[in-house]
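In response to the reviewer comment on reproducibility (Comment 2.3), we provide here a single inverse folding case reported in full, input and output, so that an independent group could reproduce the run without further information from us. The structure tokens appear first.
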């Protein structure tokens, strides 16, 4: 038994130290935010010096937009909120700034053959595209942006250098961008493989843990039946005097209480599951649905939940989404559906399934309809969670599922 528990602890420790896709995204986003600030600070003196060559006020506006976006990206990466959105905005604004640069330069002689300061944050922009876009889009951006810069270098607004130098500058930016693209893509693929293997191992472990817990429970009940129930029955059968009969009755009450306690405790799996596992399962379920859901995930990293809680949250959420697809649509009106998942501290979760559809009055739902009462509310209550259903006719429905009970009012 001790050896089994030691192997279980080793498995749990290894699972927690594995690198997940969520961790890769967090580290990549924070690294991008940090290097964006560093590169921005390094190019600030040159940007100020070259502002004299631009339309009055254009240099300050350009710096405010790009440096402000990089600062916003750094804040978003620390808060782990809207990191991809901020990176996409930075990549788009940088591409726009590069395209309008020749139009902003009114005194090419003031550049004195200098390299435009936008060049020095080109790698920051291509890295932002890698964070924000799928691999094909990020690859196209990583190659196209340096080419645009190389073309600008051939004109007075870019320093009017010879073709060889323009090609070398563009190739250098491409090489750096491709290196970042390859590194982040490889880390993502490796993390996804780890996530898949971890999820499969976790499912196998959960089955083994349940079987182990069930076997322990069987041994416990067998011992209880032998020590209490059979002894009580033998005592009752042999009781002849009132005192012996009273003793047998007390033994029977004690045996019943002990059986009730054993039934209430039941076998339970002891392993915790990372919230990203639940998120992936819900996303996989969405791929089988006929109606689209907008998915929003907040603070999923570092949150772990018991296996029983994950199963209850998953099943109740799927039931709520199925209910929305079956009952929310109204003729002549498009229905929007959202699935919102957020971690609460390190061991809680709140899931909201919302739509703007037909809605209903709770009092009008017949008692024999089990989708709400049994599949959602009672399931969550039995797992130690809670479910709240807010709806009104023609005003949509929001199902809030939380574990543990009361987590919906906790701090994210």
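Designed residues, in position order:
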């Amino acid at each position: 038994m001790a050896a089994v528990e030691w192997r279980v602890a080793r498995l749990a420790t290894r699972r927690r130290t594995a690198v997940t896709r969520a961790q890769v995204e967090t580290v990549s986003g924070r690294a991008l935010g940090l290097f964006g600030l560093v590169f921005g600070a390094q190019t600030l003196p040159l940007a100020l010096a070259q502002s004299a060559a631009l339309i009055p006020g254009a240099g300050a506006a350009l710096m405010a937009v790009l440096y402000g976006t990089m600062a916003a990206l750094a804040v978003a990466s620390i808060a782990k909120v809207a990191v991809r959105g901020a990176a996409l905005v930075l990549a788009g604004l940088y591409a726009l700034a590069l395209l309008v640069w020749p139009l902003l330069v009114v005194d090419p002689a003031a550049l004195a053959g200098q390299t435009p300061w936008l060049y020095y944050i080109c790698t920051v922009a291509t890295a932002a595209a890698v964070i924000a876009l799928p691999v094909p889009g990020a690859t196209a951006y990583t190659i196209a942006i340096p080419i645009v810069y190389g073309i600008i270098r051939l004109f007075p607004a870019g320093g009017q250098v010879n073709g060889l130098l323009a090609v070398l500058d563009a190739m250098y930016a491409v090489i750096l961008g491709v290196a970042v693209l390859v590194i982040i893509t490889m880390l993502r693929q490796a993390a996804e493989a780890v996530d898949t293997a971890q999820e499969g191992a976790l499912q196998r472990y959960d089955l083994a843990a349940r079987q182990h817990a069930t076997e322990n429970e069987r041994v416990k009940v067998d011992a209880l039946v032998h020590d209490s129930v059979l002894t009580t029955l033998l005592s009752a059968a042999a009781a002849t005097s009132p005192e012996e009969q009273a003793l047998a009755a007390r033994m029977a009450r004690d045996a019943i209480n002990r059986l009730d306690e054993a039934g209430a405790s039941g076998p339970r799996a002891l392993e915790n599951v990372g919230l990203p596992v639940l998120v992936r399962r819900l996303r996989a379920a969405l791929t089988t649905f006929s109606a689209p859901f907008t998915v929003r995930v907040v603070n999923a990293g570092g949150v772990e939940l018991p296996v029983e809680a994950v199963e209850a949250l998953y099943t109740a959420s799927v039931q709520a989404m199925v209910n929305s697809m079956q009952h929310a649509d109204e003729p002549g009106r498009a229905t929007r559906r959202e699935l919102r998942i957020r971690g609460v501290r390190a061991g809680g979760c709140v899931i909201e399934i919302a739509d703007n559809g037909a809605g209903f009055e709770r009092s009008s739902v017949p008692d024999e309809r089990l989708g709400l009462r049994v599949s959602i509310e009672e399931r969550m209550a039995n797992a130690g969670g809670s479910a709240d259903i807010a709806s009104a006719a023609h005003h949509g429905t929001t199902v809030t599922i939380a574990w543990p009970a009361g987590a919906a009012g906790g701090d994210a």
